Each structure stands twice: as structure tokens, then as C-alpha cells.
Amino acid sequence: MAAPVRLGRKRPLPVCPNPLFVRWLTEWRDEAASRGRRTQFVFQKALRSLRRYPLPLRSGKEAKILQHFGDGLCRMLDQRLQQHRASDGDHAPGSSGANSPAPERLPAEVQDSSMPVSAQLKAGGSGSYWPARRSGARAVLLLLYQEQLNPSGPGFLTKEELLQRCAQKAPRVAPGSARPWPALRSLLHRNLVLRTHRPARYSLTPEGLDLAQKLAESEGLSLLSVGIGPEEPPREESEVPGAASAELGANEGSVQQPPLELGPGEYRVLLCVDVGETKGAGHRPELLRELQRLHVTHMVRKLHVGDFVWVAQETSPRDPARPGELVLDHIVERKRLDDLCSSIIDGRFREQKFRLKRCGLGHRVYLVEEHGSVHNLSLPESTLLQAVTNTQGHTLRSRPWGTPGDPESRTGPSPNPLCSLLTFEDFNAGAIKNKAQSVREVFARQLMQVRGVSGEKAAALVDRYSTPASLLAAYDACATPKEQEMLLSTIKCGPLQRNLGPALSRTLSQLYCSYGPLT
Fold first, then answer.
1. CA-closest candidate to residue 205, choices 123, 133, 124, 116
2. In the annotation, is 71 catalytic?
3. Is-above-0.90 flag for pTM?
4. Residue 158's domain spans which residues?
5. DSSP label at 64?
6. Is 210 a catalytic residue?
7. Which residues pair with 4 in a beta bridge?
8. 354 in Cβ contact with 455 (< 8 Å)
9. In this structure, are 453 and 314 located in the same domain?
């Protein structure tokens, strides 16, 4: 007798609870991608968040509880839902939150121009925040809004570009606005502006984009005037309030100066020595005596990162008491073997290398000096040599000098010998270790306390989830504990863009999802 055939049980596939919203978001994302607009990333984030939500949504307004869903996107869904019901009579759940059906517009045109300012204030993505007219915050939002919607632009502005545009439109300084960068700091804290890279790049978050659209419409600025029309060339930026220049770039109440440009013969190169290298125990004063003996022009200053840098100081400054200084693209961190040993033990070694890497200078030198006997140190010699070897750069390919195609082998001068450098004030201010930190920076430091989370991995995590609240909200949106454990596993980290991995993702989920004490 033949054995009975046992039929396996097939697991049913999960049904998408919101197929219409998924379809419309996909269409808007593809349309924005075909037009080359950055709003495609906004729709992609919202689509990813919607697919993780297991419950049906009756209207676009209810989608506000999900991550990456602002008021503008929810209105687009409500308007599209109302059109769908009017044309097809589909029994979609719930009712639309829009007052009247509006034609579906391009992804960049999320705003409803008929909405009064008072209603826009209540619907703002950042609570009741509404920057005042002629304020620096409003100017920054409008400038970044123009740049983000410009199809030929990079979608972000640097600090120098923001200062230059504000100075062009408002060269006069408003009284009582001498504090540097209060407007931009306020927008960063409200999660309306995103700061990435070093030197810093500033762009709008989805909430900031939503608020900037309302500001542009409240001031009567059409979308075509900011350069997103397909048939019109981009025009000049909109008028910037007069207080913007003072709030953004005024230094001690002075008018924003034009960018410092130094030509041949207009500067001298000085070696800048950290004050810590000239004071303290040992024979550090011998360093200055040796520099004087070798006739090396130098100066002693407090450096927040590194021990030696070179600056180009202008020889004929406008203000003799404060000559302009540009930091050359080289920095040296000096270590004795005993100090290297102690820094490896207490963790300063990795932190110093990470800060050197993010200081904004391209050529970084980690100088290790022998001092005394290696056998009297706390770590074996092999460990120290391994640490030094790991710090060195690796030559992937070398060619003989003068090979055709090398820029160094050209006989004539470079056609454009210009280079962009940091001022000494910006370089030293950006490297302050114990400066006031944002929630994003504190969150990154907290993540780095977990074993296996390096600086690059922490940076990748905070790029995806900028605050602990956003990470916890993402964990709460997961349907199962297994999904929570694998939430962070596919985040790309480092220059090779490798996945974070399931093991580290599981560790972080246990840290942030455990209600009881950790075992």
C-alpha cells in the first residue's frame, strides 16, 4: 500500500493594507526621478515607512503618524483619494481630509496656495513655529528652498555660499543681530535644516521643505521664480531680509567681508605650533629653540586638533591687528611612544584619528617618535607597531615620475592654480572638542559606546535616524521582534558601503527595545 501523500502547508503572503497609497507614492516617486528632482527621495522614504505599517489607513491625514509623512504629503494623498472616489466610486476606507478635490500636481508642488497663513501655521511640520518676516530663519529657509528645487544645483549650500548670498541681497547689518549663526542653529535644533559632511553642507529636511513651501507661497513667490519650471531658466534668488546677513555671518558686529583671496606675493607661510607642545613636562621648550635655530618662521597658538599646521597669512591686511589667515591642506599629530601607549589604553587613539579625519584637511600626518625603551611600556612592542601600521596609508598603484598623464609632469604652469582653503578661525572653531552639542551629536557619541560601532558606523546610523526618538519610532513601527532585530542590518557604512550586519543590529535593538535591565 502506497504511503499517503502529505501536503505541505503554504504560508499566506501578507496582504498590503494600503495598496492605493503605495501605488500613488510609487507613481510620484518615479515621476520625480524621471524629472531629476530631489523630491524622489522624500517619496521613497515615505514609501518605505508605509510598507512597514501593518494597519489600513482611512485617509492621508492618518498617515501623519508615520515617519517621513509631512502635512503636504498627507494633503496630496487626501486630494488623490478624493479624486479616486469621485471618478471610480471605489469604496476606499475613510474619507479625505481635503476641503475640495484639487488636480494632482508635480511632487515639488505639495502646498495648497489657497490655505490661509493661519491654517498653514497650525499645519506646520514643526509645531507652531513660523519664522517672522525679515528674520534670518526665514531667509535661510527660502535660500535653501530655492537651491533644493533648482534642477541644475547640488541641492545644498555651504556656509560660505549662504553668507555670500545674504551679503549680496542685504549688505547692511541690522542692529542687535551681532551673534553669529543664531538663525541657522535654531533651524538645526528644530530639525528643519540638515547638516552633513565637513566642511558643512546645509539642506532642508522634509519638514523644512514643507515649511519653506508655505513661506514661499505666503510671500507670493511662485515656484517658477525659484528655477524649477521646465521651460524657464532659473532667475535670481528672491529678496532676502536685511537681518539675514547680520544673523548669519556678522562677527562681533562687523559687516560680512568678501571671501579672502590671496595671490602670489600677498602672503607668507607660517608654522603654527600647538601651545601644548611648548609647555608641560619633558623637554618641550627645546622644540621652539630648534625651530629658531633652523630659522623656521612659526607662532604658538591653541589648536583644538593636531599639533602642527601651516597657515598662509596675508602680508598687507586691511586690519593690521587681524590679518587674514588660510590653513594649508596639511596637519601633523605628534605622538611619543609612551603617549601612544596610554592613548591606546584609554581610547584616545581612535578618537584622535577620527577627529583628524574630519578636520577638513586632506593631508594628515600621524608622527610617532621613539622615547626611551619600548620594553618598559604597558603594551608589547608588537601591539604598538601594529597600531602604527594600521594608521599608515597604503599605496595601491605606483608609476615612475614623469609618466605621460601625470599632472606633475606638465612643463607649463597650471591653467587654474586656484584652491579653496579654510580660514584659521573656521578650522579651529570646527574642531572644538567640548563645544555645545546637538541631539544628533550626542546620539552619535552614545552609539559609539557600543562595542563594534565605529565612528563611520555611527555616522551612517545618525544619517538614517538623526535622534533617538526617530530610531525608537522606527522600532515601534516594526511588526515583530525579528523585524526589530534586522531593522538596521542593511544600513550602508564606510567608504566600501558595507552593511551594518545582523549581529550589530541585534545588539542595538536589544539596547533600545529592552524595557527591563540588560543582561
1. 124
2. no
3. no
4. 136-167+179-218
5. G
6. no
7. none
8. yes
9. no
